[in-house]
Write the structure tokens for this entry.
Amino acid sequence: MNILVTGANGQLGSELRLLAPEHPAHTFHFTDVEELDITDAEAVRQFVKDNAIEALINCAAFTAVDKAESQPDLCRRLNAEAPRLLAGAMQAVGGYMIHVSTDYVFDGTAHTPYSEEAPTCPASVYGHTKLAGEQAVVQACPASVIVRTAWLYSPFGNNFVKTMLRLGHERADLGVIADQIGTPTYAADLAAALLTIVEKGPVAGIYHFTDEGACSWYDFTCEIHRQAGITSCHVRPLHTEEYPTPAARPHYSVLDKTKIKQTYGISIPWWPESLSKCIKRLGEI
């Protein structure tokens, strides 16, 4: 199968690059903005045609949540319009798309894990555009799979784990939000899950994937520092009101993963175990 991976230089795309050799039956085409402008309908259509693309994994997105509040047009172009073009191109050749979405499609007012059927109610520009992207993909290519995830980190690019490691070494005191609850997700785990979907064959619909368990950003930071052996930085819990941001964050966005585990037989690791793998790769242990 010929598989196109967009957003290939990001955290998830980089992990897919590393896993691709384990799937020699497939030919992967990794693209980022330099190779393919996913907002250009003709360029997308031509690339899919020229390379006989049969499946597409869309890892591209505008993920700067706070910047999205002041750049809504660009955010919508990348998160809603581009997925529509990609899905349309796959529909035209009889293929399918796996589209990565987010916990930000929920407002975070629940107290139990969100199922795929839970009502969506985004509270930010980022969340609104990602939800619009989901809807556009399903409409343009009904055979597609939507995978919502959350709190993504990896050894690549900028992310919470790398920031907390850096600040832990630089500062003696650090305040971190303690009243927002979710689940850290190792990008390598998500990449493996996406490739399992490819191998087993897509069952159209919306799925949730994060690592197992739940914590606050404060808990997450404490565990990052513990595993990395950082003892010189005192981590303080903060309320959301003490750290205002342009975009609203969900206070609770734990995702129920029953559907993806049952449909694809995926086994999901506990988040501290996956964090340990990432920190080892970063050379912190």
